[in-house]
Design a protein that fits this description.
The structure is a homodimer of 345-residue chains. The first copy, chain A, has twelve helices and twelve strands. Chain A is of the alpha/beta class and 345 residues long. Chain B binds a DNA duplex (30 and 30 nucleotides) through helix 2 and helix 4.
DNA sequence: CACAAGTGTACAATCGATTGCACCAATGTA
DNA sequence: TACATTGGTGCAATCGATTGTACACTTGTG
């Protein structure tokens, strides 16, 4: 059974000093109408009794919890954990505690987490949606409840909520152009689920780079998949076995890119000479492997910071007519050995 | 200004059905003394009004929040995020929401997070301490407040709290023995901060493996450091420049091991033929790099599950005379190319 | 000297849900 | 018929902190 927490309350402080709880509360909140003498007495007594402010009670009364909910598909990716880090920095600074939860890419878990967050009375929710999510009604519920919602990276267009993304189109375009400039003439694209904005945009960038460089592009060059490491490995292996020719790979994910590299290496195909390859996200392992993987940096930490700031603004302007905003950050191509040839073209 | 959240309360349901809030509360909690008819009416009305249980209010009244606080040094490591995953699984199952925060290896941040968690009235706290922590008084405070505290992996011995760890000594012993069996005669140990149990134990395992195999060991073979990737790189580079001979490396961290491998490769030293190498933690990248890194699997997810279960038990037995327990999991050596020689011995 | 303005606290309602106790009605029992 | 049981709800206090309003006392001003 839950035991009585013997924490002192403002009533205890009040009793000890022979004032009322209201005075204690005001003193603790540094209210201007309380005399300096009283304040100091209260503060002293509070620390003597080892008083701990009960956030729950205050939250209930005030109608705000100073909690910020964050839901990501998984924290087990450098991209997401860096974003979380950025969110934390800004949120903590502003007096918020951050509650992180994971959808594990499953719609059901995502919906359940929304319930938990709402029940916990968080002051706002930041989300990047999972791959498994196709129905967004659980997010609509957040909006209906008048709780600020900010999305990042993976963003369903249909939701009237502010969002922070990077220019995936541009990142993909640059990476693909780079491969073409390195002499690639037939580039394979490991693509992600098309219902997610980021993968659609990356594919568009890939396609447009071909168009604008006058390079032909067949649909068979585009291989959709889960973008997991093994998926990348298997897709490329299948291509090789089928004898399909190609001299470049642009993967929408670093993980799939690594899988692809392993498939190539297993057959003794030289990287980047025979096949040049680029990924997306700049996961730390991209600089550990050999050759280093060319990839696109997403400025994840900054993305988190920006997202949190937008939440703060939105929270302060709650009630104002709401105009969702979209912030687009600029990605950066990181060129490494996996694509850098000695004699381009 | 914070807007009035127009969420319906049990009072609204009560009014709509012309019963009292107490009845509604009981109906929602499926109290046996409420008639089936009433319950169903309440449930229907609740969903009609889109009622959301206010967790805060219930928590305040009940004295328990159904929140579980988890603090790790960083979520940006596969080990920790897997543990968190394990904790989540068990905790969610038991009706707890998990609140994750990071100390970023800094004592100050760690202490601040403890305050946040306590104020948020979490029902329990699970911690793995940061490298920067030398004073543990902020944890003592958790115990004083009668809040269940469970530690994992990095555990200060001085705290009277239950803990879940793996047998670091054994993992290190096995890894080192393996290197010796592969023919290594002078193994370098990249060691971690000695004030953390895990690094002390790993070093002991390293030492004992030498002792029990009758291999000499000089203190110069042990190189303490931060165990970051660059630290591993720099330590090994320095050794090489100094002309120190060695034919094996056991790193207490996979990251430092990768740094070491890069240093070796940069000088054209063959792995594992000239120098065999093993790390610790089985981070995902260990199987991506080449050669694959021999390492020690820590069963992180299971560790999280176990930790959460211990919290649950402890919570249920609050008030009982408290006997801290220590659970030790068994690690597993994963042998890969970085240490596997063609002709051992 | 009267009154306005400013200081410092107290009172009591409130946030939303929970729960011990009281109460009434219906049913069962002797 | 009188009384004990059981089922089904209502009443009101409670969790701990916050806050609008009221009130008493000073101080300042004309």
């Amino acid at each position: 059974m839950a035991q009585r927490k013997n924490s002192p309350t403002i009533h205890d402080i009040a009793k000890a000093l022979d004032v009322t709880p209201s005075t204690v509360s005001r003193a603790l909140n540094n209210h201007p109408r309380i005399s300096q003498t009283t304040k100091e007495a209260v503060w002293r007594m509070a620390s003597t009794l080892n008083y701990q402010h009960n956030h729950l009670a205050a939250a209930l009364r005030r109608g705000r919890s100073s909690l910020l909910g964050v839901m990501v598909p998984t924290i087990n990716r450098s991209f997401f954990s860096s974003v979380v880090r950025g969110i934390e920095e800004v949120a903590n600074e502003a007096g918020y505690a951050v509650m992180v939860c994971q959808s594990h890419e499953m719609q059901e878990q995502e919906a359940a987490n929304v319930q938990v967050l709402l029940r916990t009375q968080v002051d706002g929710i930041i989300v990047s949606v999972g791959k498994g999510t196709s129905d967004f009604s659980h997010f609509q519920q957040i909006i209906d409840r008048n709780t600020p919602l900010v999305l990042f990276d993976r963003v369903p267009e249909s939701l009237p909520a502010s969002a922070v993304v990077i220019d995936d189109y541009r990142g993909a375009y640059q990476a693909t152009r780079h491969l073409i400039e390195q002499g690639c003439r037939r580039v394979i694209h490991l693509a992600g689920p098309a219902h997610l904005n980021i993968y659609r945009d990356r594919q568009r960038g890939f396609e447009d780079a071909h168009r604008l460089h006058g390079l032909p592009l067949e649909t068979s060059q585009i291989l959709p998949g889960s973008l997991q490491q093994d998926a990348g490995h298997d897709s490329i292996t299948a291509l090789l076995e089928a004898g399909e020719p190609f001299d470049g790979i642009f993967s929408a994910s670093d993980y799939a890119a690594v899988g692809a590299m392993q498939a190539l290496k297993a057959r003794g195909i030289a990287i980047p000479e025979a096949v040049a390859i680029a990924g997306f996200s700049n996961e730390p392992f991209t600089s550990m492997i050999e050759p280093g993987l060319t990839t696109v940096e997403q400025h994840s930490r900054q993305m988190g910071q920006t997202t949190a700031r937008i939440f703060l603004e939105q929270f302060d302007h709650q009630g104002d007519p709401y105009v969702p905003r979209r912030t687009v950050l600029t990605p950066e191509l990181i060129v490494r050995g996996s694509s850098l040839r000695q004699n381009p073209r």
